[in-house]
Structure formats: structure tokens, C-alpha cells
TrEMBL record, chain A:
This is Protein-export membrane protein SecF. Residues 113-299 form the Protein export membrane protein SecD/SecF C-terminal domain. It is found in: Cell membrane. It is a multi-pass membrane protein. InterPro entries: SecD/SecF_arch_bac, SecD/SecF_bac, SecD/SecF_CS, SecD_SecF_C, SecD_SecF_C_bact, SecF_bac. It holds the Pfam family Sec_GG.
Automatic annotation (TrEMBL), chain B:
Pfam families: SecD_1st, SecD_SecF_C, SecDF_P1_head. Belongs to the SecD/SecF family. SecD subfamily. Residues 112-125, 132-148, 199-208 have a biased composition (Low complexity). This is Protein translocase subunit SecD. One of its GO terms (cellular component) is plasma membrane. The chain crosses the membrane at residues 381-401, 408-428, 440-459, 493-516, 522-540. It comes from Streptosporangium album. Residues 251-361 form the SecDF P1 head subdomain domain. Part of the Sec protein translocase complex. Interacts with the SecYEG preprotein conducting channel. SecDF uses the proton motive force (PMF) to complete protein translocation after the ATP-dependent function of SecA.
Length: 348, 573
């Protein structure tokens, strides 16, 4: 065992996450812009449950489910749910213009030898529209407030802010992936989004817990700045973050793989794609968005500014205190803070 | 839990609509005058029916509009009782309150003697205080105009704000009331009002039975009232017969009522609006009656007003639930009324729309009942299960490779968590109507990750302790636990808050999903505390682990201080 694998196994990794925050912020900003553009330009491909749709029902005792499905989807609609009823078949599709409806009716009639007027059409409203979606949004807002409150009490408001920003970041990017890929948004997808919500916060909370523990030891004689300490905490939980993500994502990847390769479109794919993207983005954001944001906020506090200033004036010592391969970047960041503080002092 | 499962001979969960198929009922609404129902009234009906079939949000039922019809899909086939339940009419009715008690029986031996005091009214804050002087005022004036049957002593000894038996048909008294801040906004017909969120009327409630004036209450109804527990049964969908006395719970289940025959029905309501009182800035609901409504309303308010608390309240019952029960402060002729007190814009709007659409009694006719197969097909379910199994296998392989001996702990912990989850799901479908849908299955598979994270956090902490080179494995296991425990609890609390908020604020599938998520979180905590940690502590005593065998996952190579020391968290000396 050698190289990266060995270092991973032994937990010896040191990446300067916080020092490269400009890179992460840039990357995130680009992803957000692309996602929002996708949402604006393409919009989400909402499923039958959100928009309502057309329901065809007819009798065809000899048909099988695959024949019915392919007959309907060949005629145009791409959201096709086939169900048997006690007296025949029931096919639900998205809402269609009248001429397309006629095409589907004709196709079914000719394929299964039913008179066209016996292929019944019913237009059905959204079962997940209105009340359900509205309440989900209210729930989401209350949830975020509750989480902010909880994190403010358990940690502090700066951490709550960092976690919520990362959360919104994850949701927008995942929604963006849906917009660009054109994957259908079904109730299952929505539940996937809600899972991401919990997962993204969970990850940030574990990382913050470690940062809190490590930075609690920073005193006036400290040899590390808040930035460096937070970065160390991140590296400390890095193995856990990677392992957790891997363990959580393996089953999802399996579902996504099976859902896309073996069965084509379906609930499995809808849900697992949201989870797959959301989990990757969630892990990324707790390391590269939530934490740098927190550090930016914390370094503005006088006590951490003081540490940064003192260490900057003994630049050499600070560099040896933390054996970080990315020392120049970290020192640079610390210097930046110092000059900020100096400016403020001069104003006084 | 396994024992309970065994005793109930329930070994498989009930499946939801997408996995098991179900019964689809199409309802056609019938309006009194045969016109097409408005969109708003249909939406209200959809909301009412959704509450009836999926009130707890875990039964995976769906309700959709289809043109003017309403289509309801309920998991399972042959759901006769559901068909019956959703087809009943939901109409608003006004009924005089005859008796009130707390929604659930108090624990035995504890008499709720505090009930008659004003302080027992939890929601009437502020408003109540401003009214504080009024009971004495009424007490002094009441003897003169007190009708027969209302005892003076009661008026004096029971000075709760709800019990304001003041005769206000005298002009002087009315002026007093207006002066006291109950501005009538210049309406011709003096609106009556009293703050009354549904819990407020609990104030005048006496000891459940002893103090209740049972005169005029049908003994059968009274018996029903005594046994009714609102915590268990909220009565939604139990449509009331307007010609009979009726027992109902308040919307939040905190109070239960015996109600007189319906005095006014919803079809007599002309309109209802929410608005702000220009003088006090309070939200209120105004309603007006039509047809026979004004007369009936005037009659019931007069009767109520001349009665002693709690009979001075008129309850509004929608779909078997008391949505509001304001105290009548004066007889209200003219067919216009105003309800005020502790409303927010949202609650005022909600009550106004309930009142408004109560005016449109939507009756339903069953136009078709179909049994449908699952929407997913067996292939998707099989795919999901295969994928889950593959995913789980990958997780097991990975944790064995990475954590070696400790991997066994995580594997066994996951097995325990899986068994517990399965049992919980089975029991919930047996007792609480939980229906497992594919979304739940995926949610549970995903929770593998969250559950595994607890172990990973703990294992990494143990390794940290060992790396710092200060501790033997046995102490490391204990010290690491203290630190990991906090992280696990904080992180799980976040998940649990998410689940609780979503469960109570969302409807339909989201609530069911939140329910599954909350359940998994609790199981995770139980497994980590009661299985993983003791198991690791036990293993730490074995030579294989304590001596750091190559395959134990705690061997010297992994535990050694790294040469650069870069991963050691800097600590102040």
C-alpha cells in the first residue's frame, strides 16, 4: 500500500480547503449561475402528479403491460404510467394538446382492436399540486428557521448561517441538474430534495462540531489562527466525510445504475439522481462553502484578528507551527485579515 | 418489538398505492341549484377529503381534481369504508354549545379544578386582559335582567371572561362595551365578538362531568361525550345530523363539546370575509347571512347570550370538527356578525374561507369505483430491492476493507438497524395505517448512509485517540465515545427536527416521508447507544483488538503518529 491510498488509509491528508476559498467560491458561483440559468431557460420537467394529465382507459383483455406502454409512448407522450383496473387498462400521461390525445386514442384503438370511441379520456388534475406543494414549501421555510434557531443555540449564528447557505447552494445546484438534464420531477424527486436537505445539514453539523471543538482551544497565545485551526479540523474530519459520503452514496449509485440501465424511466431513477447529485454537492459544500464562509465571518471577530495579527508579525514561527504544505496561501489569508484590522484601527 | 410483531402475526408491511395498487373512487359534486361548483369550493372539498383519507399523512392516499370531479386513490383493494367516508357531505353548521370539557380525559386522580379560573384559557392572551374588568361589570348588572335559570351565585363565583352574561340590549351597556375597546366598526347591526380560538372556551369548562349542566342533553349523547377522547379520535368525516345533538372535538383536539341541534346551516351564509378592525388593528372575520339565516342567527345568539357559560357559545362545525366556538356577547339581529380575537391574517383567512364555502354544501355522488394495479409495476420494486441489496453489499465490502475488524461492528449494527426498522414499519402499518411506498423504501436505503455515519464518527474518534498515543484501546474506546456521542446526537437532532417540522407542516407523501425519516433517526440513536458502543467496548477487551492485530483495524501501522504530524489537531498546551 503506498501513495495516496496509503495516506488515505492512515488518515494522513492535508488539503488547504479554507485557503483556496476563492477557487471554491468561484466554482460554486459558476455552478449556481449555470443552475439558475437552467431553471430559467429550461424550467423543471414536472410530472403528472404536479401538472395533472390525461387518463386513457379501455378494455383489452389480451394486451400486456409492455405492449400498452410502448403503444402509448410511441404515439407521443413521454410520461406514461400503465395500470390495470378491474375492467381493463388505465394509462396516465402528461397533459397533451387535443390532436395528440386523438393520436394516442387512435394508436390504442388500432393496436388493440377497440373502437376509438371506447378509449375513454379523462383529464385529471394535479394530486400533488396546490395544497400539497404549498404546504411543503411552508414546511421548508419553517424547517430552515427551526434549524437556524437550533444551530444558533447548539453552536452559534455564524455556523447556522454557513450551514443554511450551503444548504440552499445544494438545493439550487441539484435543481439545476434536473433542469438541464430534463429528468422528470415527480413526488419521489421532491422527497429526494428533502433528503438532501437533511443530509447536507447533517454533514455540515458534523464538520462544525469538530471546528467548534478545535477552535475552542484558541487563546491569545495561540500558535494558530482561526483559519488554520478550522482547516485542520476539516482535514481531521475529512476521512469521516469521505467515508460517510461513500457509504451513503454506494446504495444510491446502485439504485441509479439499476434504475437507468435496466428499467428505463421510472421512480427509481428520478429519486436516485436527485440523491446522487445532492450528496456529492452536499459533501463538497460543507467542506468548501460552509466552512470557508464560517471562517470569513469568524476572522472578523477581534479576538481572532488579534491572533492573526500577532502570528503574522512573527511570520516564520507561524509557518512552523502548522506544517501545512499550503502555508503561503494560509499566511496570505492571514495577512489580508491583518490589513483589514489595521484599516479599522486607523479609522478609530 | 419483535415480540409484539410476532403476537400480532404481522410479518409484512402494508404497501402504498405505487407498490400495491388500490381503489380509485370518482366523486361527482352536486350543488343545491345544479350549477357547476366553483373552483374554490372544489379545492376546499379536495382539502377536506384529503384530510379524511390521509389525515396523518402516512397512508399514502391521493386526492386529485378531474374536471369537476374529484378522484381519490386509496391503497389496497375493496376499500368500502373509504368510499363511504369520502362520499359524505361536508357542510358547515352553527350549533349552540351545551357542554365543554378538555379534549382528553385527565389522568385518574387529578381533578381539573383549576379549569373555571380565567387563567386556564391558554390562547386568549392580551385580549383577555383587556377584558378583565368586564366580568364584574356584568355581574353587577346581570341580576336585573337575568332570565330565569341563570343563577346569580354562579355569575358571581365564576367570573371567567368567557362567562360574560351581561345583558347588553340596553343602550347604556352597549356604549360601555364599545368604550371598552370592542369597537363595532360602525356597522349597522352590532357585531358580536369574543376572542375564540377553539381552545379559549375551555376556560369555563368545569370538572369534566361534575360541574357540567346536563339539563336538556340527550343521555345517549352525554355518554358519548364522556367517553370521547379527542387525542385518539378527532371525528373528521363523521358527518353530523343537523336535527340531533352532536358531540365534537375542537380542531386541535384540546376541547370537546356537546352541541345542540343545528341552529343555522352553512347554506344560510351569504358571505364571509377576513379583515382588519380599523380601530384596534386586530384581524377579524365578518360574515353575513341570507334567506332564513338572519332570523335563525338572531334566535340562536339570543338564546346563547341569555345562557350561562359555556352555553353562551355558538360553535361552528365543519366536517364533524368544531372550527371555532365564539362566546356570544349580545343577541345579533340583522344577519351580520363579526368574530374577533387572537386571529392572525392566516387564521382569519382560513376561517373566512371555511365559512364561505360552508355556504356551498357539496354533496357527492359516486360516479365510478375502480380497482387499479400499482403504478410502478413489479419490475421497479424488484429493481429497487436488488439495487438496495447491491448497495448494502458494497457498503459492507467497503467497511470491511477500510475498518477491518471494526467493520464487523458496523455490519452487525446495520443488520440490527435494518431488523428494527423492518419491525417498526410492520407494526406501524398494523396499528397506525402506515403504507410503505417506494419512496419510503428508498428513504430507508438512503438512511443506511446516515446510520453508518454514526459508526464512522465513532471509529474515527477512536483512531484519533489512539494516534495521539496516550491511551490504551480500552480507554480510547471510552474517551472517544464521550466525544463522538455529542456529535452523533447533535447531527441526529438536525435530522429529527427536519422530520418533525415536515411531518406536521406538510401533507400527503411528504408527511409520510418525514415520518420514515424521523423513525430512522430514532432507530439510529437506539442502535448506536445500545448496540454499537457496548459491542465495541466488548471487543476492546479481546486480545485481537487490544493488541492491534493487523486485521483488527486498530493495528500499529494505522495508529502510528504520522511522520509529518500534519493531521494532529494543534492543541494549546
Amino acid at each position: 500500500m503506498s501513495g495516496i491510498a496509503r495516506r488515505l488509509y492512515r488518515g494522513e491528508i492535508d488539503v488547504d480547503f479554507v485557503g483556496r476559498k476563492k477557487l471554491w467560491y468561484g466554482l460554486s458561483a459558476a455552478l449556481l449561475v449555470i443552475s439558475i440559468a437552467g431553471l430559467v431557460l429550461h424550467g423543471l420537467n414536472l410530472g403528472v402528479e404536479f401538472k395533472g394529465g390525461s387518463v386513457f382507459s379501455f378494455k383489452a383483455p389480451t394486451a400486456n403491460i409492455e405492449q400498452v406502454r410502448s403503444t402509448v409512448s410511441d404515439a407521443g407522450p413521454h410520461q406514461v404510467i400503465v395500470q390495470t383496473t378491474n375492467n381493463g387498462w388505465q394509462v396516465t400521461t402528461e397533459s397533451m394538446p387535443p390532436e395528440e390525445v386523438t393520436t394516442v386514442q387512435k394508436a390504442l384503438a388500432s393496436k388493440f382492436g377497440v373502437p376509438q370511441n371506447q378509449v375513454n379520456l379523462q383529464v385529471i388534475g394535479a394530486s400533488w399540486g396546490g395544497q400539497v406543494a404549498d404546504k411543503a414549501i411552508i414546511g421548508l421555510i419553517v424547517f430552515m428557521l427551526a434549524i437556524i434557531l437550533y444551530l444558533t443555540v447548539a453552536f452559534e449564528w455564524k455556523m447556522a448561517l454557513g450551514a443554511i447557505v450551503a444548504l440552499l447552494h445544494d438545493l439550487v445546484i441539484t435543481a439545476g441538474v434536473y433542469a438541464w438534464s430534463g429528468f422528470e420531477v415527480t413526488p419521489a424527486t421532491l422527497l429526494g430534495f428533502l433528503t438532501i436537505l437533511g443530509y447536507s445539514l447533517y454533514d455540515a453539523v458534523v464538520v462544525f462540531d469538530m471546528i467548534k471543538e478545535v477552535t475552542a482551544k484558541l487563546g491569545t497565545t495561540s500558535k494558530t489562527t482561526y483559519t488554520q485551526a478550522a482547516n485542520n479540523a476539516l482535514n481531521h474530519t475529512l476521512i469521516r466525510s469521505l467515508n460517510t459520503t461513500l457509504v451513503a452514496i454506494l446504495p444510491v449509485a446502485a439504485i441509479l445504475f439499476i434504475g437507468t440501465t435496466l428499467f428505463g424511466a421510472g421512480t427509481l431513477k428520478d429519486l436516485s439522481l436527485a440523491l446522487f447529485v445532492g450528496m456529492i454537492v452536499g459533501t463538497y459544500s460543507s467542506l468548501c462553502v460552509a466552512t470557508p464562509l464560517l471562517v470569513t465571518l469568524k476572522e472578523r471577530e477581534p479576538r481572532y484578528q488579534a491572533i492573526a495579527r500577532r502570528l503574522a508579525s512573527h511570520g516564520g514561527k507561524a509557518a512552523t507551527a502548522v506544517k501545512s504544505p499550503r502555508q503561503p496561501v494560509t499566511a496570505g489569508a492571514a495577512n489580508g485579515v491583518v490589513s483589514d484590522a489595521d484599516k479599522r484601527n486607523k479609522k478609530k | 418489538m419483535g415480540g409484539v410483531m410476532f403476537l400480532n402475526r404481522a410479518f409484512t408491511p402494508e404497501y402504498g398505492l405505487d407498490l400495491a395498487g388500490g381503489t380509485t373512487v370518482t366523486l361527482r359534486p352536486i350543488t343545491p341549484n345544479g350549477s357547476a361548483p366553483t373552483d374554490e369550493s372544489l379545492n376546499l372539498a379536495v382539502g377536506i377529503i384529503r384530510n379524511r383519507v390521509n389525515g396523518s399523512g402516512i397512508s399514502d392516499a391521493e386526492v386529485a381534481k378531474s374536471g369537476d370531479n374529484i378522484v381519490i386513490s386509496v391503497p389496497g383493494v375493496g376499500q368500502e369504508e373509504v368510499v363511504k367516508l369520502v362520499g359524505t357531505t361536508a357542510e358547515l353548521r352553527f350549533r349552540q354549545v351545551l357542554a365543554v370539557a378538555a379534549g382528553s380525559p385527565p389522568p385518574p386522580g387529578q381533578l381539573p379544578t383549576e379549569a373555571p379560573t380565567p387563567s386556564a384559557s391558554p390562547t386568549a392572551t392580551g385580549k383577555q386582559t383587556s377584558k378583565a374588568p368586564r366580568p364584574s361589570q356584568s355581574a353587577t348588572s346581570s341580576p336585573t335582567a337575568s332570565p330565569a335559570g341563570r343563577g346569580l351565585s354562579s355569575a358571581l363565583t365564576n367570573p371567567s371572561p368567557g362567562a360574560t352574561p351581561a345583558p347588553s340590549d340596553r343602550p347604556g351597556k352597549k356604549a360601555d362595551q364599545n368604550g371598552a375597546g370592542k369597537n363595532t366598526t360602525g356597522k349597522d347591526a352590532t357585531p358580536s365578538a369574543k376572542p375564540s380560538q377553539s381552545t379559549a372556551p375551555t376556560a369555563p369548562a368545569d370538572d369534566p362531568m361534575a360541574g357540567v349542566d346536563t339539563t336538556g342533553i340527550d343521555p345517549a349523547v352525554l355518554k358519548q361525550f364522556q367517553t370521547l377522547d379527542c387525542a385518539k379520535h378527532k371525528g373528521q368525516g363523521a358527518q353530523d345530523d343537523p336535527a340531533k345533538q352532536f358531540v365534537a372535538c375542537s380542531q386541535d383536539g384540546s376541547a370537546k363539546y356537546v352541541l345542540d341541534k343545528a341552529a343555522v346551516t352553512g347554506s344560510s351564509i351569504d358571505t364571509a370575509n377576513s379583515g382588519v378592525d380599523p380601530t384596534t388593528g386586530e384581524w377579524l372575520v365578518q360574515l353575513s347571512f341570507k334567506g332564513q339565516g338572519p332570523d335563525q342567527w338572531s334566535k340562536v345568539t339570543t338564546t346563547a347570550f341569555n345562557s350561562q357559560a359555556p352555553r353562551n357559545q355558538v360553535a361552528m362545525v365543519l366536517d364533524g370538527v368544531v372550527i371555532s366556538a365564539p362566546v356570544i356577547q349580545e343577541p345579533i339581529p340583522g344577519g351580520r356578525a363579526q368574530i374577533s380575537g387572537n386571529f392572525t391574517q392566516v387564521t382569519a383567512d382560513e376561517l373566512a374561507s371555511q365559512l364561505k364555502f360552508g355556504a356551498l354544501p357539496l354533496k357527492f355522488e359516486k360516479s365510478s369505483i375502480n380497482e387499479v394495479s400499482s403504478t410502478l409495476g413489479a419490475d421497479q420494486l424488484r429493481g429497487g430491492l436488488i439495487a438496495g441489496a447491491i448497495g448494502l453489499a458494497l457498503v459492507l465490502i467497503y467497511s470491511m476493507l477500510y475498518y477491518r475488524g471494526l467493520g464487523i461492528v458496523s455490519v452487525l449494527s446495520l443488520v440490527v438497524a435494518t431488523v428494527l426498522t423492518y419491525e417498526a414499519v410492520v407494526l406501524l402499518s398494523e396499528f397506525a395505517g402506515f403504507r410503505l411506498s417506494l419512496s419510503h423504501i428508498i428513504g430507508l436505503i438512503v438512511s443506511i448512509g446516515i446510520t453508518a455515519d454514526s459508526f464512522i464518527v465513532y471509529f474515527e474518534r477512536i483512531r484519533d485517540e489512539m494516534k495521539e498515543g496516550r491511551r490504551s484501546l480500552r480507554t480510547a474506546v471510552e474517551v472517544a465515545w464521550v466525544r463522538a456521542r455529542r456529535t452523533i446526537l447533535i447531527a441526529d437532532a438536525v435530522m429529527f427536527i427536519a422530520a418533525v417540522v415536515l411531518y406536521f407542516l406538510a401533507v400527503g407523501g411528504v408527511a409520510g416521508f418525514a415520518f420514515a425519516m424521523g423513525l430512522t433517526t430514532l432507530i439510529d440513536i437506539a442502535v448506536v447507544f445500545m448496540f454499537t458502543k457496548p459491542f465495541v467496548a466488548l471487543l476492546a477487551k479481546r486480545k485481537f483488538f487490544a493488541k492491534g492485530h493487523k486485521l483488527s483495524g486498530l493495528d500499529a501501522e494505522r495508529m502510528s503518529q504520522s511522520p509529518t504530524g500534519s493531521t494532529t489537531v494543534p492543541q494549546e498546551a
